[in-house]
Amino acid sequence: MFTKWISGLSFLAIAVLASPIMADELKVGDKAPEFSLKGEGADTINLADFKGKKLVITFNRANWCPFCMKQVVDLQKNYDAIKDSGAELLIIWREEATGSDGLKKIRERTKAAMPFALDLEAQKTGAYSTDGFDAYILDEEGRITAILEGTKPDRALGDEILTALGKK
């Protein structure tokens, strides 16, 4: 009897704790949550910096992740087309423990020109991409117009982003 009671209580606790997470999931039409992140060097990158411009936000792990590097290389190949569509691209790194040095290593290896920011363990961008692999497209007012779902090996690449931006 006691075991059934504990099991039932455990199930209830999980349901109660999980429900706020599910209720807060971002969706198309939502205002994107503000953030202020460390960029490369002493730069700070704020979501408000992109107001008046479409913004594509992607999330990656670190310089040691082959799936991350594949996405960054592809996004760099499409970066001019993304910018030509009136959008900027921001890549947020969530596990780059070497900080700015790691971002420089990524930039050197991929020749990436888009801005990078750090948010270790999703402390400031946790409302976005809870699994860490989705991409968000925001309009000029900071509203989410598309969420491109991703997985560890398969993330949004340039063609999919350009299609979501209306350029393909």
What does this structure look like?
The chain is an alpha/beta fold. It has five helices and seven strands. Strands 5-4-3-6-7 form a five-stranded mixed beta sheet. β6 and β7 (144-148) form a beta hairpin. It starts with a helix and ends with a helix. The model is unreliable at 9-23 (pLDDT under 50).
- Please, how many helices? 5
Structural class: alpha/beta
The topology string of helices and strands comes to HEEEHHEHEEEH
Shape category: globular
Described by strand count, sense and barrel closure, the largest sheet is: 5 strands, mixed
Tell me the radius of gyration: 18 Å
Name the strands of the widest sheet in spatial order.
5-4-3-6-7
Which assembly state applies to the chains in this document?
Answer: single chain
Q: What fraction of the residues are assigned to beta strands by DSSP?
A: 15-25%
Distance between the ends: 61 Å
